[in-house]
Specification:
The complex is a heterodimer of chains A (about 575) and B (about 325).
Chain A lengths: L5 H21 L5 E14 L17 E14 L2 E11 L2 E10 L3 E13 L10 E2 L14 E6 L7 E14 L6 E22 L4 E26 L2 E14 L5 E4 L20 E4 L6 E14 L2 E14 L4 E14 L5 E14 L2 E3 L14 E3 L5 E12 L5 E14 L9 E17 L2 E13 L21 H9 L8 E14 L2 E14 L7 E17 L2 E8 L2 E5 L10
Parallel strand pairs in A: 7-10
Antiparallel strand pairs in A: 1-2, 2-3, 3-4, 4-5, 5-8, 6-7, 8-9, 9-10, 10-11, 11-14, 12-13, 14-15, 15-16, 16-17, 17-20, 18-19, 20-21, 21-22, 22-23, 23-24, 24-25, 25-26, 26-27, 26-28
Chain B lengths: L1 H5 L4 H16 L18 H7 L1 H7 L3 H4 L7 H6 L3 H6 L8 H4 L8 H4 L12 H5 L23 H4 L3 H7 L35 H4 L14 H5 L22 H4 L15 E3 L9 E3 L3 H6 L30
Classes of the chains: A mainly beta (about 575), B mainly alpha (about 325).
């Protein structure tokens, strides 16, 4: 096993334990309550005759291993300390330490790890050579596919370590001011499969084992304060960074040549005859500032928030900037009614990128340079309203409607301002005659205009080839209407819960939806989903759960697929 | 009345409607809303335990009791003044969250549990669909967080469709108890923990940070919504894809043109690389190009490195 943050966890835990437990030493007058439970056992893991991918999360260390579970808690007045730990195997450990010292400091730090087995693509399907006659006997064609596994004995998988800490400090003397800090690190180390294509000379796929060493660190600090009873203000500043410490894998790309004729085709490719990087994961970071307020005025409440964020690709110097605000108004006009209205507006700007592409076939005037405009650059607006009416305790009905609009500045082409709009409606009902039975029924509808205008991505560029058509025009003719995005959705959700007592739950339900897109000239897209289910849960006590579930999923899509065409 | 009956097209429709109305009328009526009368006063925990001894004994290990919420009136801190209830013994004269909760009314729990985590609890989906706090929490329990059941069974009790998906071949390790529903879902408000900013994709990116970007070469659905290709609750297809490859890809893209090529039956040696002895079948090209698009387009979430072909302008996400 490579480095793990367990050492860091122990250091943080000791500091935290001292902070939390210090008041215990100085207040001997309060009664103390402690409990300790220790469980020691063992298990055996063997994966012979067991397909590894099926046991994606079940495989840790193989063989017989001891297993330990420890739980300790101590309560003293308004001070609490709790530790729980579970050692399953060296790759699967969980440790939690939490505590509270009066109402001043509370916190929790945790370390959890597990192993994820990765599947292996054997590339067996990649073996073919073009024939030039319909009897498939003449191997005159130049196109072929081959593959090669450079690390046939590699076993792919990685261990994921997660270390989190959360602290809340109530500032002494400032009864309504709380400081909040949290942190999370995710470290992943192991081996994974990377496949790279060496396109020319003969289409050749190479599989390699590459090192995994990914690190995500996120931290946030902030405060919340009640300057007056009816007003809650909070601010949170968040920072996250990601980097891969593993060396960037490289692969040798053959010199571009016609595989049969040996003609040099280097002027058709951007690179070739050299070792180049592939699968590089850029170093990134993200910073966000969020301000929230909540206020109450008579029977109504108002919630508001504003977030500013910047996401950066440090490796390439690219940046996404985002600003967004939400507003929510909730009012109880009477004891039996409730009305909620929301509105939000967000602006996201992703840097454009100028990309130089070498000219194709020396001397040809066609250029492939382009500016990468991003579909992420957009303005999003949303508004919704919901009304709930509960004439008496056993009935409740609700109706809601909402509207969303996304305008993408430069999509499908610069300054095109491609727009997607969505209208949402729902009707819901709930029946609960007593605490043992609850029935819910909901109908929902979504009507979308231009769900994802990516069928218009055939930008006016590229090469005319043996015809007056540009590539993009030919592509547009072939598959511009292929989509799996619906313009209309109807759905029903029925849930019935029966709880004869607190130890048993019987649930039954069905969720059904029909998605269609009738904007296509030739064939409507249609997707039908139907999922009935029945489940029974028995909990003789809070530590025991016996459950059974029967569910059937029917999912059928019917849409266009563009049949392939050879050049010209 | 006759005018009302004439609206129906046939007897079957009329029978169904009238039957449904009768069903609604026959539904058992619930008792009226409960709660302490305005003139009730506090009576203290000892009075409560005189009748509710079993609950009182168990409650001593409860976090509310240990933290002495309400001092000597721990029970009434949540249930309200109990003098009238104690005098008459009528359940309707005291508040019980199990039977007196309404989505439009007051919630006693949020009187104390306030702050950023709970600031919009009364507007959260669970507040409306569950019966307040007591569907998930046993307020008198000694368990951590007072949960009625262990996770994830607690969530699966209502979300049994998600339970079924969690058992599918490709899933997040929820049933293995390595992550929990609350790692993604904030049950007390609409916001999830550990997200940075409010990008709609941020929930996924908070763990799968490698795909944050921005990338030079983008795949547009990644900018839109991870759910276009993935269902995070579990799928039959690998990598939690909503459909298997190549069908998922073909629902937006055309088939690769190589799939139409005829291929030979028998062994072959690539002329430039005779050491690569290979065997082809007549459907070899179809197998190669209609099995798994991400074998070649491996950087499907975005890349900073150009692909090889000049005519594709480096956009093929193969490197």
């Amino acid at each position: 096993m490579k480095k793990t943050p367990i050492g860091l966890f122990i250091c943080l835990g000791m500091i935290f334990g001292l902070l939390i437990s210090a008041p215990f030493a100085f207040s001997q007058d309060e009664p103390s309550f402690s409990s300790l439970s220790l469980w020691i056992g063992g298990h055996y893991t063997g994966i012979e005759d067991y397909h590894k991918k099926v046991g994606e999360f079940d495989r840790g260390e193989e063989g017989a291993l001891p297993e330990i579970f420890l739980d300790y808690s101590n309560y003293k007045g308004k001070k609490t300390l709790r530790f729980s730990g579970h050692f399953y195997d060296p790759k699967r450990i969980s440790v939690d330490l939490s505590g509270r010292s009066k109402e001043v400091l509370s916190g929790k730090i945790s370390y959890h790890s597990f192993y994820r087995q990765r599947g292996k693509d054997l590339l067996n399907n990649l073996m073919a050579r073009e024939a030039t006659d319909k009897l498939n006997t003449l191997p005159g064609g130049g196109k072929m596919v081959t593959s090669e596994d450079l690390t046939p004995d590699a076993d792919f998988g990685y261990t994921r370590h997660q270390l989190t800490s959360d602290f809340k400090i109530k500032v002494p003397g400032k009864a309504n001011l709380k400081i909040i800090a949290s942190h999370r690190s995710i470290l992943e180390d192991g081996e994974d499969q990377k496949i790279v294509s060496m396109h020319c000379s003969s289409c050749h796929m190479v599989s390699k084992s590459v090192e995994v060493d990914r690190q995500t660190h996120a931290a946030s600090v902030g405060f919340e304060v009640n300057p007056v009873e009816a007003l809650l203000l909070s601010y949170t500043g968040s920072f996250r960074t990601f980097k891969s410490e593993a060396p960037v894998p490289t692969a040798f790309y053959d010199t571009a040549e016609h595989p049969i004729k040996g003609v040099n085709l280097s002027d058709r490719v951007i690179f070739g005859g050299e070792e180049v990087d592939f699968g590089e994961i850029p170093q990134t970071q993200k910073i966000a500032h969020t301000v929230k307020l909540q206020t109450q005025m008579g029977k109504s409440k108002i919630y508001g928030s504003f977030t500013n964020s910047q996401a950066k690709n440090i490796s390439q110097g690219l940046e996404i900037n985002s600003n967004g605000g939400n507003l929510k108004y909730v009012v109880n006009p009477t004891l039996k009614t409730k009305f909620t209205a929301t509105a939000s507006l967000k602006r996201i700007e992703n840097d454009d990128v100028e990309i130089d592409v070498p000219a194709w076939r020396g001397g040809d005037p066609e250029q492939f340079d382009f500016i990468r405009y991003s579909s992420l650059t957009r303005t999003q607006g949303e508004g919704s309203a919901e009304f709930i009416y509960q004439p008496e305790r056993r009935y409740r009905v609700s109706v809601s409607a909402g509207y969303e609009q996304t305008t993408r500045d430069d999509y499908p082409e610069p300054e095109a301002e491609g727009k997607t709009t969505k209208l949402k409606m729902s009707l819901g009902g709930k029946y609960r005659p007593h605490s043992k039975f609850t029935g819910r029924l909901k109908y929902f509808l979504e009507k979308t205009e231009d769900p994802a205008p990516y069928n218009l991505i055939f930008e006016e560029s590229g090469k005319t080839y043996s015809s007056p058509f540009y590539y993009y025009q030919r592509e547009e003719l072939r598959y511009s209407q292929v989509t799996n995005q619906a313009t209309m959705l109807h759905g029903v959700d029925l849930k019935l819960n029966f709880k004869p007592d607190q130890k048993a739950t019987l649930s039954a339900g069905i969720r059904a939806s029909l998605e269609t897109n009738s904007d296509i000239d030739t064939l409507d897209f249609e997707r039908t989903r139907l999922q009935p289910n029945l489940s029974l849960t028995l909990s003789p006590n809070p530590r025991w759960n016996l459950f059974g579930n029967l569910s059937y999923v029917y999912d059928k899509s019917n849409g266009l697929a563009a049949v392939a065409m050879m050049n010209g | 009345m006759l005018k009302f009956l004439k609206r129906f097209k046939n007897k079957k429709e009329m029978g169904f409607t009238l039957g449904f109305i009768c069903f609604l009328l026959l539904l058992p009526r619930a008792p009226s809303w409960g709660g302490s009368p305005p003139d009730a006063v506090m009576v203290g925990d000892e009075t409560c335990s005189a009748c509710h001894n079993e609950i009182s004994e168990k409650f001593k290990g409860n976090i509310h009791a240990r933290l002495s919420v309400g001092g000597e009136n721990t029970c009434e801190a949540c249930h309200g003044p109990g003098s009238k209830h104690a005098e008459e013994g009528t359940p309707d004269l005291i508040y019980s969250s199990l039977k007196d909760f309404t989505a439009t009314g007051k919630n006693v729990c949020t009187d104390c549990h306030r702050g950023t985590e709970f600031d919009s609890w009364s507007e959260a989906t669970h507040f409306e669909t569950a019966e307040g706090c007591s569907d998930c929490h046993r307020i008198h329990s000694e368990e951590e967080n007072l949960l009625a059941q262990q996770k994830p069974q607690l969530c699966f009790g209502c979300h049994s469709d998600k339970m079924a998906q969690a058992m599918m071949p490709s899933h997040h390790p929820v049933k293995e108890d390595l992550i929990s529903c609350t790692d993604c879902h904030s049950v007390h408000s609409k916001e999830a923990k550990y997200t940075v900013g409010d990008d709609s994709r941020e929930l996924c990116l908070s763990c799968h940070t490698a795909y944050q970007g921005p990338f030079i070469y983008e795949h547009d659905p990644v900018n839109e919504d991870c759910g276009i290709c993935h269902d995070p609750h579990g799928t039959v297809a690998d990598k939690m894809l909503v459909q298997n490859e190549p069908f998922l890809c073909l629902s937006c893209h055309s088939m690769h043109f190589h799939t139409t090529l005829l291929s030979i039956e028998g062994d072959f040696e690539p002329p430039m690389h005779p050491e690569r002895e290979s065997k082809s079948t007549t459907d070899g090209m179809k197998k190669a190009f209609l099995t798994k698009c991400t074998q070649c387009h491996s950087e499907i979430h975005g890349s900073d490195l150009p692909s090889q072909s000049t005519s594709g302008a480096g956009k093929a996400l193969t490197r």
